[in-house]
Amino acid sequence: MDTMRDRFAPVVSRLLDEDPRVAVVLAEIGADGFRETGRRHPDRVINVGIREQLLIGTAAGLALTGLRPVVHTFASFLVERPFEQVKLDLGHQDAGAVLVSAAASFDWPAGGFTHMAPGDVALLDTLDGWTVHVPGHPDEAETLLRHAVAAGEDKVYVRLSVQSNRQGRAVDGGHFHTVHEGRSGVVVAVGPMLDAVLAATRGLDVTVLYATTVRPFDVAGLRRATAAAGPDVVLVEPYLAGTSTAAVSEALSDVPHRVLGLGVGRRELRRYGTIEEHVAAHGLDPAALRGRITGYLAAGRTTALTTGG
């Protein structure tokens, strides 16, 4: 199966052909995929070289002229390194752009910690007005890329990963989707974590929600699920653990609830190994997830019994 990033250049190349407002801004990474398209649209395919601050500044300038820039590089170079430009050139100037990352949390372990960005979504959370898409399959990535480019002047982040679920699902760029219904809690699986969550919760009486758009957070969808399955919520995210726990707490602020955030831990792993070894080290493989989820839900039931709930 091809990867999400394999879809990126073909999809955006078609958008360049279809829409004269679309422009692409690169910082060397991914430039090979746009060589032919760049010959057709030399004024709208721009490679700034290894200059990530300029990457964002150029995109903001294009946006201010009325274009819809699509900006691409590794997540650590797209969000973390040029964060001041993301904050000021895009945010402060209210200039819309589509940031499309690669490498995600630890997709290229051989690249070392410089090429890992598990805190990217949490960092964008410090800014106002960003939409964040986290596809879990190449088909979903293609759909969400098109959503993002079509989103007027909005600021959108699309987080691509080589980690993928086995099958794509219908996504609409906004709502959580119910994959399984239960009565003893809600597990929210974000993007490529869905397959692991389904394996971890097999046979458990829980509702599983699938989230590929996490900002804005689907408050109504979560409230419907917890009204039926109870107010114990587990978030399983492919980035920094706990990134969306505040969003859950805000969504359920008027009802007693509990929330557990599972994801990439804060401890830096200095022996890089493989993607699978990173997944296991952070407790995101099905066996570890099952233990953590069942333990959490059991503790909630015990508390309810001892307090007369």
TrEMBL record:
<dbReference type="InterPro" id="IPR009014">
    <property type="entry name" value="Transketo_C/PFOR_II"/>
</dbReference>
<dbReference type="GO" id="GO:0000287">
    <property type="term" value="F:magnesium ion binding"/>
</dbReference>
<dbReference type="InterPro" id="IPR005475">
    <property type="entry name" value="Transketolase-like_Pyr-bd"/>
</dbReference>
<dbReference type="InterPro" id="IPR051157">
    <property type="entry name" value="PDH/Transketolase"/>
</dbReference>
<dbReference type="Pfam" id="PF02779">
    <property type="entry name" value="Transket_pyr"/>
</dbReference>
<feature type="domain" description="Transketolase-like pyrimidine-binding">
    <location>
        <begin position="2"/>
        <end position="167"/>
    </location>
</feature>
<protein>
    <submittedName>
        <fullName>Transketolase</fullName>
    </submittedName>
</protein>
<dbReference type="InterPro" id="IPR029061">
    <property type="entry name" value="THDP-binding"/>
</dbReference>
